[in-house]
Write a structure and sequence with these properties.
single chain; about 750 residues; mainly beta; eight-stranded antiparallel β-sheet; about 5% helix; disordered N terminus
C-alpha cells in the first residue's frame, strides 16, 4: 500500500508549477462546475424523489468564571462573586430551525424548532400540478391560507390554531376553503389621548379589612393591643380565651389622634385597652361622638353621617338612640364587645366576619397604579365596565400599593373618612349595604366599581405582534370608532383623526394564547367565477363563532361572533366598467349564550397546585394539645377518637416526576394519563432518603384551570393515605372569614 502525504508547502509549489504551464491548456474550454445541492438529503423511495431541507441556526454559549478577594476584613484569600460576572459555569443554547420533508415534489411536511427546544409549528401539505382541480392543500397550525381576496379578508392564524386550507381551480372558477380552531384571549388597552392608562378596577366593597382602626377616643395616655392566640396566648379572660400582646413591630399607632394601624391584617380577634386620665376605655364620659348615628328603625335603619352617638359600657338598650343602634348592630348592648384581660375591661375592636364600627373602611389595594405614583393617579366611581364616572379624591396610604378615599375637609377620625362613599353617593342604598350590618348587609347587587388610573407616556397605539387582525374594536369616548388602520407586522394602530389629549380611547382585541380556555371556530369560503372576458363574480362566506359549549362571559364583548356573506358582480370592457357589490353581516355580542352577572367567580380564591406546597398528611384534631403526626395526636391519644389515623398505618403513597425533559434541556408538565419513564417513578419509603413520597403534580389539559394534585396509592386493610395543600400565599395564611363555599374537583381513576 502506498500513501501520499501532501504538505501545505508542497501544495503551494504545485500550484506555482501548474500556473507556469497554464498556456498548454486551451482557454476557451470551460471546466465543469458542480452546483451545490439544494436539499440537505436526497433519496428515492419507490422510484419517487424524497428531499429533506433544513434552514436556520443553532447557537450555543458556555460561560465560566470565578473571583477572589483579599484585603482589610478578609482572612487570607477568599472566593467572591463579582457583580455582572458569571459565577461558575453557564451553558445556553438557542435553536431556530425550519425543517422540511418533500415527497415527489408534491407532498410536504414542515416544522420549526425554537429556543424552547420544542416543535412550535407543523404543517402538512400538497401541491397539485397544472390542470388538477385541487391545486393546494394544507393542514396544521401555521400558514393556513390567509390574506385579502377582493372585498373579503381571512385573518392570519396563530401557532396555537389548528385548521386546514384548500385551493381549487376549475375551468372558469377558483375556490378557497379554510376552517380552523382559534384559541384566543381578550386583551384591552386604554388611553387618555396619547397617554397609556394603567388601570386597576376594584369592587367598592373590597376595602382592606382588619388593619386600620379608629379608637373611640383621642389624646389617650397609653395603649395595649392584644391578638387572640389560643396556641401561644398567655392572658386569659373570663370566657377562657387566650391573647398575646402585640409589640411595636406589629403596629403603628397615634395616642394623640386615637388611631391604630396593624402592619398585617388580623386573622383573629383584636382587643385594645387604653386609659385617658383616670378613666379607661368604655367608662362614662369617654367615647363622646365615637360612633356614626343611624336614621330609621328596624329594617330601614341606615348609617347617618350627620349625627353621632357616644360609646360607653353602661349605655342602656332601652333608651334612645341606643335602642335602634343595638338592633342595627345586632348586639344586646355594648358589653357584647367587652373582653376582660388581666382584670381590665377591654374593647373587642375587631373580630373576623363580624361588623365593627371602629374600622376605617376607605383603604383599597390599588396595585401598580399607586406603586409607581408620581401624582398622576386618579380614582373614578363608575358603572361597571364603563369608561366614565365621577372623580374621587385619594391619597397614598401606609403601604406602597394602598390608597385611601380622602374626602376633603375631614380628618381620619371623622365618620366621613370611615364611610367615604356615603359622601359621594347621597347615602344611596347600595353604598349603605357596604358599610353596615343592617338589612343591606351586602345582599343588594352593586353595579358600581372603583377605577384607579395612572397615566404614562406611550410611543403610540401598539397592540403587539400577536394581535389577531380582524378582532380589534375601538371605543372613542364610549362611541364605536371605525376610522383607523392596523399594521399586523408592527402592531401599530393609527387613527385617521388623531385623538385629543383628554379623549378616552378603549381598544379591545384578541391575542393568541396557549392558556386560553375555549376558543372560536373560524370558517371561510372564497369563490371567484370568470364567465367570460367581460363578466366575473365573487361569492364569499365567513363565520366566527364560539366553540366551547361550557364557556361564558362576564363582560360584554368577550366572545363576539359574526356571520358574513358578500357578493360582487363585475363587467369590464374597453368602454365600460361596472361593479355591483352587496353583503350582509349578522353579529352577536355573546356567542356563548351565557352572561354571569355581578362577578360570581371574581371573589373566588383559586388554589394553585405547587409541588413545593404539597405533602402527605391527615386532618389535624387539635394542634394545641400535643404534637400531631399525620393527623394523629400521640401526646394525647384520647383526643383522637373518631379519627384514628396514626403514622404507623399510613399506606403507600407513590411519587412520579411528570415532567417530560427534551434532549436540549427543555421540560414540560405532562397530562396525568402520561406514562413516565421508569427512572422518573420512585419506590415508596416513609423515611424518605433517595426515595420520594407523593402526592405529585400533573397537568389536566383543558379539563380544569391549572394543574392537579395526583395521589397514587396502595392500601391494605386499615391503611390510610392523605394529601395536604396549605391555603397560603406569599404574605402568609389566607383570610377565609368571608368564604361561603369550598369547591374541590376529584376524579378517581382505578386500576
Amino acid at each position: 500500500m502506498i500513501r501520499l502525504y501532501v504538505t501545505p508547502f508542497f501544495l503551494f509549489l504545485l500550484l506555482l508549477w501548474v500556473g507556469s504551464y497554464s498556456s498548454v491548456f486551451p482557454r476557451d474550454i470551460p471546466l465543469p462546475e458542480e452546483e451545490a445541492p439544494q436539499a440537505l438529503f436526497s433519496a428515492e423511495l419507490y422510484d419517487a424523489d424524497v428531499d429533506f431541507f433544513i434552514e436556520g441556526s443553532w447557537t450555543a454559549s458556555l460561560q465560566g468564571g470565578t473571583g477572589i478577594t483579599w484585603g482589610d476584613g478578609v482572612e487570607g484569600v477568599q472566593p467572591a462573586v463579582l457583580s455582572d460576572f458569571t459565577d461558575g459555569f453557564k451553558f445556553e443554547q438557542v435553536p431556530q430551525l425550519n425543517l422540511s420533508l418533500w415527497y415527489m415534489d408534491r407532498y410536504f411536511f414542515e416544522t420549526t424548532i425554537t429556543e424552547e427546544q420544542q416543535l412550535e409549528t407543523f404543517l402538512f401539505g400538497y401541491f397539485g400540478q397544472e390542470g388538477d382541480f385541487l391545486q393546494e392543500a394544507r393542514a396544521g397550525n401555521t400558514d393556513i391560507g390567509f390574506g385579502d381576496y377582493g372585498m373579503f379578508s381571512i385573518p392570519a392564524a396563530s401557532r396555537h390554531s389548528l385548521g386546514a386550507y384548500g385551493r381549487f381551480e376549475g375551468g372558469y372558477s377558483e375556490h378557497h376553503l379554510a376552517a380552523r380552531y382559534d384559541p384566543a384571549q381578550l386583551e384591552e388597552l386604554h388611553f387618555r389621548g396619547s397617554r397609556l392608562i394603567e388601570e386597576q378596577r376594584v369592587a367598592p366593597g373590597d376595602f382592606r379589612r382588619g388593619r386600620f382602626f379608629v379608637l373611640p377616643d383621642a389624646d389617650i395616655d397609653f395603649l395595649r393591643v392584644y391578638l387572640r392566640d389560643d396556641r401561644d396566648g398567655t392572658m386569659d379572660d373570663d370566657a377562657d380565651r387566650s391573647y398575646r400582646r402585640l409589640d411595636e413591630d406589629d403596629m403603628v399607632y397615634s395616642l394623640e389622634e386615637g388611631l391604630l394601624f396593624l402592619r398585617q391584617p388580623a386573622t383573629s380577634d383584636v382587643v385594645v385597652y387604653y386609659e385617658k386620665g383616670v378613666d379607661s376605655v368604655g367608662d362614662v364620659g369617654l367615647g363622646t361622638g365615637a360612633l356614626a348615628g343611624i336614621t330609621g328603625t328596624g329594617e330601614d335603619a341606615v348609617l347617618d353621617l350627620d349625627s353621632s352617638i357616644d360609646f360607653y359600657w353602661a349605655a342602656l338598650s332601652t333608651s334612645d338612640p341606643y335602642t335602634d343602634y343595638f338592633k342595627f348592630a345586632d348586639i344586646d348592648d355594648f358589653e357584647d364587645w367587652q373582653r376582660t384581660i388581666n382584670g381590665d375591661e377591654a374593647l373587642l375592636l375587631y373580630s373576623p366576619g363580624q361588623w365593627s364600627p371602629f374600622e376605617l373602611l376607605s383603604v383599597y389595594n390599588a396595585g401598580a397604579a399607586v406603586k409607581a405614583d408620581e401624582g398622576n393617579t386618579t380614582l373614578w366611581l363608575a358603572a361597571k365596565n364603563s369608561s366614565g364616572g365621577s372623580r374621587l379624591p385619594i391619597e397614598q396610604f401606609q403601604d406602597a400599593d394602598k390608597a385611601r378615599i380622602a374626602p376633603s375637609g375631614f380628618d381620619l377620625r371623622s365618620h366621613e373618612a370611615r364611610y367615604p362613599l356615603l359622601v359621594y353617593t347621597d347615602e344611596s342604598s347600595w353604598a349603605q349595604s357596604l358599610y353596615g350590618p343592617g338589612p343591606g348587609g351586602g345582599t343588594e347587587a352593586i353595579d358600581r366599581e372603583l377605577r384607579f388610573e395612572q397615566l404614562s407616556q406611550a410611543g403610540g397605539y401598539n397592540l403587539g405582534s400577536n394581535a389577531l387582525e380582524g378582532s380589534i374594536t375601538v371605543l372613542r369616548n364610549g362611541v364605536p370608532e371605525q376610522r383607523f388602520s392596523f399594521n399586523p407586522d408592527t402592531g401599530e394602530l393609527n387613527f385617521f383623526i388623531p385623538p385629543s389629549q383628554n379623549e378616552r380611547i378603549d381598544i379591545r382585541y384578541r391575542t393568541t394564547s396557549a392558556q386560553a380556555i375555549g376558543g372560536d371556530i373560524f370558517a371561510a369560503a372564497i369563490n371567484r367565477f370568470n364567465f367570460n372576458e367581460q363578466w366575473s363574480a365573487d361569492l364569499n362566506l365567513g363565520l366566527r363563532w364560539n366553540a366551547d359549549p361550557n364557556a361564558y362571559i362576564t363582560e360584554t364583548g368577550e366572545a363576539e361572533g359574526s356571520m358574513l356573506a358578500a357578493g360582487q358582480l363585475s363587467y369590464q370592457s374597453d368602454r365600460l366598467n361596472f361593479e355591483l357589490e352587496s353583503g350582509v353581516n349578522v353579529r352577536s355580542p355573546n356567542t356563548t349564550g351565557r352572561l354571569r352577572l355581578f362577578g360570581m367567580d371574581d371573589s373566588a380564591y383559586p388554589v394553585s397546585m405547587n409541588p413545593e406546597l404539597m405533602y402527605p398528611g391527615a386532618p389535624v384534631i387539635d394542634g394545641s394539645q400535643g404534637g400531631v403526626v399525620g393527623g394523629y395526636n400521640e401526646a394525647s391519644p384520647a383526643i383522637n377518637e373518631g379519627n384514628d389515623l396514626p403514622h404507623s398505618s399510613r399506606g403507600e403513597l407513590f411519587f412520579s416526576d411528570f415532567y417530560n425533559y427534551s434532549f436540549a434541556g427543555g421540560y414540560q408538565l405532562q397530562h396525568y394519563s402520561w406514562d413516565p419513564p421508569s427512572d422518573q417513578t420512585y419506590p415508596y419509603s416513609q423515611s424518605g432518603g433517595t426515595n420520594r413520597t407523593g402526592p405529585y403534580i400533573a397537568a389536566t389539559g383543558s379539563e380544569t384551570e391549572g394543574n392537579a394534585m395526583v395521589m397514587e396509592y396502595d392500601l391494605e386493610n386499615g391503611d390510610w393515605v392523605g394529601g395536604t395543600i396549605p391555603l397560603a400565599d406569599g404574605s402568609g395564611a389566607v383570610d377565609l372569614s368571608h368564604v361561603q363555599a369550598i369547591t374541590l374537583l376529584v376524579k378517581h381513576i382505578g386500576r
